[in-house]
Automatic annotation (TrEMBL):
Compartments where located: Cell inner membrane
InterPro entries cross-referenced by the UniProt entry: GspF/PilC, T2SS_GspF/T4SS_PilC_CS, T2SS_GspF_dom, T2SS_GspF_sf
Protein name: Type II secretion system F family protein
Bilayer-spanning residue ranges: 184-205, 234-254, 390-410
Record domain Type II secretion system protein GspF: where: 83-206, 287-409
Pfam families: T2SSF
Topology of the protein relative to the lipid bilayer: Multi-pass membrane protein
Annotated family: Belongs to the GSP F family.
Keywords of the record: Cell inner membrane, Cell membrane, Membrane, Transmembrane, Transmembrane helix, Transport
Amino acid sequence: MSATRTATKPATVRRTDAMPLFVWQGADKRGKIMKGETPAKNANSLRAELRKQGITPKVVKPKGKPLFGAAGKRITPLDIAIFSRQIATMMKSGVPIVGAMEIIANGNKNPRMVTLVNAVRADVESGSSLYEALCKHPVQFDELYRNLVRAGEAAGVLETVLDTVATYKENIEALKGKIKKAMFYPAMVMAVAMIVSSILLVFVVPQFEEVFKGFGADLPAFTKMIVALSRFMVAWWFVVLLIVVGTIVAFIMAKNRSVAFARLLDRLILKLPVIGQIMHNSAIARFSRTLAVTFKAGVPLVEALDTVAGATGNVLYEDAVRNIRDDVAVGYPVNVAMKQVNLFPHMVTQMTAIGEEAGALDAMLFKVAEFYEQEVNNAVDALASLLEPLIMVFLGVIVGGMVIAMYLPIFKLAAAVG
C-alpha cells in the first residue's frame, strides 16, 4: 500500500549555471510515493539522478510558469537578513555553505528567493567565492553586504560576519519601520481628509444646494463659499484629480532623479519641528551602526566610510561622511573629521574619540547606535501621542466646517421663523 509524502530533501543535481526547475514524482523501494522540485539540465538527467537515489520516477516535467508574471513576493532586506542568519547558524553547526544554501532553497516558500539562493549556490559550487557569487546580484546584496562578506572570507570568519550582518539588517529595518510610521500616519490622515472632503463636495453639498434654492433668501457667506467650491469640484473633478496625481508622480520622479532636489528635500526635512530631529537621530544611528559593523568585520576604515556614506539615508549626511572619509584618508582621526562637518552632536564625537583612544571604536559606535535608536523609538511614540489630538482637531475643522456651512441656512431660517 503506497503512502504519499513530500521528500524532505529532493534529488541534488550539481550545476554550473542557472538550470530550469522540474517537478517530479516517483516511488522508492518500499513503494512510498515521493515528490519534489529540483533544478536539472533536462528531464533525462533528473530521471537518472533519481534512479541513483533509489527512486523510480513516474512523472518528471518542467515547473509551469505563473499566469501573471513572476511568482512570489519581492525579495526584501528582511528576507536577506533571514538568509544570512540561516547560513551563519548552519555553518557554525558544521554544515558546508553549499549544503546550507540547498537546505535554505528547499525550505523557502518565496519562488524568487529560491531562484536567488539556487543561483548563488550554483556559482559557489562552480568554484566562485561567496563574494563573487553575490556580486552578480547587486540589487539584493548591496555594496555594504558584499564588502562585509569579502572581509569575512579573507579573515576566515564568514559565519560570524554573516551573523553580524543579519543582526545589522534587522536593526536597520526596525529603524526604517519607525521612521515610516512617523511619516505615514499624518500623511494618511491628510489623504483621508481630502477624500472625505471631496466626497462631501461632489455628492452631498449639491443635494443641500437644491434645498437652499427653495428658501428664497440669501445664503451665509461661508455657505456660499462651500457651494461655489462644490460647483467647481463637480465641474472639474477630473482636472483636480489629474493635478493631484501629476504632482505626486512629479515629486517622486524629481526625488529619484534629481540630486539637487533630493538634497533640498533632505535639508527641509531636517529643519521640520519634531520630524527633523527624528531624521537627525535616525541618520546618526544608521551611520554609527553601519560603521561599527564594517569596522568590526575588518574592512579598512577609509573603505568602510566610503560604504557607510550611502547607508545614512540622508543626502546631507552622505556628503558629510564622504568629507570625513577624505579627512581620514590624509591622516585625521575620525572624531576630528566628524567635528569639521558640523552635523554630529558633541556626545557622538566624544564617544568616537574615546573609542579611538581605547582601540574599541566599533564597541563605542555600537553604544552610540543603540542610544540614538532608542531616541528615535521614544520620539516616534511621543509624536504619535501628540498627533492623535491634533489629527482629531484637523478632521473636525475640515469635515465639521462643511457640515456647519450646510446647516447655517437652516438655522438662519429657523431663527427668522421663530
